[in-house]
Amino acid sequence: MKFLLRLGRSFGRLHVRLCHQSVYSSHANPRRVGVNLGEKKLEISSGRFARFADGSAVVQLGDTSVMVTAVSKTKPSPSQFMPLVVDYRQKAAAAGRIPTNYLRRELGTTDNEILTSRLIDRSIRPLFPSGYFYDTQILCNLLAVDGVNDPDVLAINAASAALALSDIPWHGPVGAVRVGMVKGEMLVNPTRAEMASSTLNLIVTGAPSSHVVMIEASAENVLQQDFCHAVKVGVKHTQQIILAIQQLVREQKVTKRTPVKMFSAPNDLVEHVRTFASDRIYAVFTDYTHDKISRDEAINKIRLETEESLKEKFPQAEPFEVIESFNTVSKEIFRNLVLNEYRRCDGRELTALRNISCDTNLFKPLHGSALFQRGQTQVLCSVTFDSLESSIKADIITTALSGIKDKNFMLHYEFPPYATNEIGKIGGLNRRELGHGALAEKSLRPVIPKDFPFTIRVTAEVLESNGSSSMASACGGSLALMDAGVPISSAVAGVAIGLISKANPEKPAEIEDYRLLTDILGIEDYLGDMDFKMAGTNKGITALQADVKIPGLPLKVVMEAIQQATVAKREILGIMNKCIVKPRESRKENGPVVENVRVPVSRRARFVGPGGYNLRRLQAQTGVTISQVDEETFSVFAPTPGAMHEAQDFISEICKDDQEQQLEFGAIYTATITEIRDIGVMVKLYPNMSAVLLHNSQLDHKRIKHPSALGLEVGQEIQVKYFGRDPTDGRMRLSRKVLQSPAATVVKTLSEKQSISMGSSSNHTTSTES
């Protein structure tokens, strides 16, 4: 039996080797091509690493190298969508570091890894053929990172090359670049040092014929014309990368596989749905009295009846074909309504906004709060202040890759299931929530003052959702920040632009006709071709994210979308200004307080306490947070003014005048021993002063290992000389040794020690207090 199992495994391995033999041989000769991007050279290579993958490519810029592999199953998935998984992982070894967790290995995914994975996914997903439902995995492996060139854009290009060079059906390639702007000059793939002074961080993914597939951008109030110019510059350079990948494809003579089955609705089923339900579907989409819930219920009722009719007439039809037939017809009716009749399902004009209402200061205990309602999308935002110590500390790998160590502004987006009348899990790290929160945070970050004395956390909780909740979070967050008294430079508003397009029958990659929709509903996002989200102030753009569902958008459509979003953004800001025009002059009374406390070096040891005991006790009793600013200054953060008053009383008690200012440098004083230690004795010069260490080296001219060698005891009085404070650590300097005669320090017997002690006590000089 064991022999048969081993034989089966051997045949299995042989089968795998034979299946990959053609792929392996096609990559046997490594090929490389270079792309000149301004002063930088991007290199794309394939055929050396990971040759068992369906596709593999390495992209290098400077000394940063990223390898991406693509593998797709040949057996279709039971899902009803494209099952694509993109995993981008930061490798500590690539950055020359070792992880600091207890296992010293890479563990869970970080926020940066998830956001970069989404970036790659959005760049390649639109180019997969419709109906290709085969499990596909894209893995991004950082080989080396030089700390100068960011690997995220390289990973997009490597994923494009890996898919293009594989036999996986994919209508690529695409190219991606980062565009920065320094003093009005556009930089392509800028270095980390250049990005530090850039007012724009734009990543654009382009497809052939200068089409745009994906845009992700954050900007510091960049003007519309400058932003549009940056997009054009980026798209121009993506075409060079596409040509380079196409050259590699021609050299390797890539042949795409023919899938076993492409999932689409059969024509006869679609025609039956048109006959049976099209009029009823049209009636629902043109009934403007419907809201999200009632419209969904009406369509679902028609869906169930239509599916029953299909099952009766086509009993052999697969469940997917039945479902997709209805979806095809309903999508067709919805899109034709916009394209041909210029009508939307809620009765609005194509460029009209939904009704907007705003409110602030909803809950007095909160540092800041706001409610933003746009149609049936409702977001509650709250602002919380905390100490600068509460800022997010990046892990060492993210710091090594991006240079960002911490940030004192964050926005967390929450999307509970009740927001769409559903039941589901809450909590955990949701990729969608993380992405939407990151976009809203980018929208607001440029207007936050850089020298604000607190860490700011904005929480955006979606209470109702019917489209564009991330941009509603940006609007609500801006209102809440002003309500909290954060002196933001300008209010921020965001809006989503949608697209309904019609492809050219002869050239499916080209758009024959299209309509842009302002402030889209959830159904317009689901059945449309684009979700184009833009946020900014009255002056310029702060963030932009374009998710495209078709193989690419002409630059003309992108420019029109930016213009249409700009008009809508200004209209929204006008409505928001009616609620609150500018930030509060001062923060709320129950808000946190931060003050600097000056502690002289001479008092620092007492202020901190042994091993930091006083600081820990202060923080535990009052709830304040203390951090050291410089040698003599400590920053005290209190969550409330009451806590600050308690902390001030505590500090005053610790650092109160203890007669030290009356001590005279060089004077002799009588000190009382309070404690015997191995390294010396603790003494007090006055009853209300803190005990001070008198080290063994200052007790006698003779070297001793323990004070007991001199017969010293607790409660005994000895004479010491005062030499002020140590300028480095602030400790009081005392010496008994300087008052002792070297000849009198030879101690042989206990009786001699006692006589010396008695003699010295009888010769005490009365201390003078001056």
Give structural notes.
The chain is α+β, with helices and mostly antiparallel strands and 770 residues long. It folds into 5 domains: 30-99 and 107-252, 2-Layer Sandwich (Ribosomal Protein S5, domain 2), CATH 3.30.230.70; 267-341, Arc Repressor Mutant, subunit A (Orthogonal Bundle); 356-579, GHMP Kinase, N-terminal domain (Ribosomal Protein S5, domain 2, 2-Layer Sandwich); 593-654, K Homology domain, type 1 (Ribosomal Protein S8, Chain: A, domain 1); 660-762, Beta Barrel (OB fold (Dihydrolipoamide Acetyltransferase, E2P)). Helix content is 34%, strand content 26%. The strands form 6 sheets. Strands 8-7-9-10-21-20-18-19 form an 8-stranded antiparallel β-sheet, sandwiched between helices. Strands 1-2-3-4-6-5 form a 6-stranded mixed β-sheet. A 5-stranded mixed β-sheet has the order 11-12-13-17-16. Helix 15 (613-622) packs antiparallel against helix 16 (641-654). The radius of gyration is 36 Å and the shape is elongated. The N and C termini lie far apart (101 Å). 38% of the residues are buried.
Q: What is the fold's blueprint, element by element?
A:
Elements: H1 2-26, E1 31-37, E2 40-46, E3 55-61, E4 64-72, E5 84-89, H2 111-124, E6 136-144, H3 151-165, E7 175-182, E8 185-188, H4 192-196, E9 200-207, E10 211-222, H5 224-252, H6 267-285, H7 292-313, H8 319-341, E11 356-360, E12 368-374, E13 377-386, E14 392-393, H9 396-402, E15 406-407, E16 409-414, H10 431-444, E17 455-464, H11 469-483, E18 493-503, E19 511-518, H12 522-527, E20 530-536, E21 541-548, H13 555-579, E22 593-598, H14 601-608, H15 613-622, E23 625-628, E24 633-638, H16 641-654, E25 668-676, E26 680-684, E27 692-695, E28 717-725, E29 732-735, H17 750-762
Parallel strand pairs: 5-6, 16-17
Antiparallel strand pairs: 1-2, 2-3, 3-4, 4-6, 7-8, 7-9, 9-10, 10-21, 11-12, 12-13, 13-17, 14-15, 18-19, 18-20, 20-21, 22-24, 23-24, 25-26, 25-28, 26-27, 28-29
Helix pairs in contact: 2-3, 2-10, 3-5, 6-7, 6-8, 10-11, 15-16
